[in-house]
Design a protein that fits this description.
Elements lengths: L4 H7 L3 H14 L5 E2 L9 H15 L2 H9 L8 H15 L8 E4 L2 H12 L1 E2 L5 E6 L18 E3 L3 E6 L2 E5 L11 E7 L11 H14 L3 E4 L22 E6 L11 E4 L2 H15 L5 H12 L1 H28 L6 E3 L6 E5 L7 H10 L2 E2 L1 E2 L17 E5 L4 H20 L2
Parallel strand pairs: 1-14, 4-5, 4-8, 7-12, 8-9, 9-10
Antiparallel strand pairs: 2-11, 3-4, 6-7, 10-11, 12-13, 13-16, 15-16
Length: about 425
């Protein structure tokens, strides 16, 4: 049986497929895998309790229950939820937006499939454009969503060594070029996989550059402000009409609800809504229903500030301390943990590739993500991309510590066997 190019493109091996396969294996497999690879958020008791209570109220209300499971939402998404979101953003940030500036999607991955293919690929005038990633490493899920091959351009970052075992990536604006072949610029903030938070100054420069070139600046805000606000450093959130902010309910604690949020110009929102209708008819109603009260009352801001942010910051500090203890005496660097739910470990002069390290750790029942998957659009070879791994610290503390001890031990074994 022959296959189409579409099938070939979306069924070949890729980083995001491997990550989700590993996640499924860890959750349903017979072996006891330590899942330090996936992006699953932590099960925070206070957050779970809120959603459990909210779900109970829905079940006890036959009218609301019938609406949620018995009716299609419009392709833009649940109207009441969108109105509450726009009111929250106006109040919190004084943005000049309304419901016409917000659409929902079936999770962030679906949103990026639509957005990237809106601004990359072949245009009506016959030209071809790409998505510019001004800072790599970047999110593993971007790599394969474009229908057109060769749809990304990216640049190596500047590396600042902060201390004996800590470093930070910065956008290299001296290299950065936005030519006529660029359809949009995209960054994640905080960055998945590194936990890097681009500074307000970096964001202002990118905003000005994209405004000058009249192209969108897409900001992946899955871990950012105002929710889930997994940010441990000073940062401000800005929006203007040429920007597209992508948010999600997943890292708030509802990855199973598959609810993405897009804030953009009316033109972009109309296009997204029409695509939703074609791809999905309508979007799921459970996510908006569970989060409605949090958004409408503004309680979500307090929940993030007082529960979610400190919860992950404590876990980040604990995981960092464990890894530094276990790797003592070796040359290694951790990216400064400014947000998200990952540690980004760089082992200079690693005798094996990060892919080989991944397989050796998997054989010891520890799952991580090899770093080379996180460099979409970077054409030149760079040894650094094969010396890094992404480690999640969102799991239970005992699981994280057990996994980190094994990771450090395996790295020692590799160096000792040179």
């Amino acid at each position: 049986m022959t296959i189409s190019r579409f099938e070939k493109h979306y069924t070949e091996d890729s980083g995001i497929v491997r990550l989700m396969d590993d996640l499924g294996e860890a959750q349903t497999g017979s072996s006891k895998m330590l899942m330090l690879g996936g992006g699953n958020p932590a099960h925070i008791p206070e957050v779970l309790q809120f959603f459990q209570e909210r779900l109970a109220r829905i079940v006890d209300n036959p009218v609301e229950m019938a609406h949620i499971i018995g009716n299609y939402d419009p392709p833009q998404g649940d109207r009441k939820f969108i109105e509450s979101l726009s009111a929250l953003f106006r109040k919190q940030y004084s943005w000049d937006i309304g419901p016409e500036n917000i659409a929902l999607s079936a999770g962030s991955q679906s949103a990026f499939f639509m957005l990237f293919n809106m601004f990359a690929g072949e245009y009506e005038d016959g030209t071809r454009r790409k998505i510019l990633l001004p800072l790599t490493p970047e999110y593993i899920g971007y790599s394969d969503v474009c229908l057109s091959a060769d749809s990304f351009v990216s640049y190596k970052p500047l590396i600042e060594i902060l201390s004996e075992h800590e470093f930070k990536y910065h956008v290299d604006f001296n290299q950065l070029q936005i030519g006529p072949d660029i359809g949009a610029v995209c960054i994640s903030r905080p960055t998945n996989p590194t936990g890097n938070v681009l500074s307000d100054d970096e964001m202002e420069k990118l905003t000005a550059l994209t405004r000058l070139h009249q192209i969108p600046l897409i900001v992946d805000n899955a871990y950012g402000m105002p929710f889930p606000n997994i940010i441990f450093t000073e940062a401000n959130l800005h929006w203007e009409p040429h920007m597209i902010l992508c948010m999600s309910l997943s890292k708030l604690g509802m990855p199973g609800a598959r609810t993405g949020i897009i804030v953009a110009s009316q033109r972009v929102i109309k296009s997204i809504s029409r695509m939703n209708a074609i791809f999905s008819l309508a979007l799921g109603s459970i996510g908006p229903a569970l989060a409605q009260d949090l958004i409408e009352t503004g309680e979500i801001l307090s929940l993030c500030k007082h529960v979610i942010t400190p919860y992950y910051q404590r876990k980040a500090q604990l995981a960092t301390a464990i890894l530094k203890r276990e790797l003592k005496g070796l040359e290694f660097y951790l990216h400064k943990t400014e947000g998200a739910i990952f540690l980004w470990l760089w082992i200079p002069n690693l005798p094996v590739s990060c892919e080989q390290l991944y397989h050796r750790l998997k054989a010891r029942s520890v799952l991580v993500v090899p770093g080379h998957y996180f460099f979409p659009g970077l054409e030149q070879e760079w040894p650094h991309r094969h010396e890094c791994i992404r480690i999640s610290y969102a799991m239970h503390d005992s699981v994280v510590e057990q996994g980190l001890v094994i990771i450090a031990d395996e790295i020692r074994n590799i160096f000792n066997s040179k």
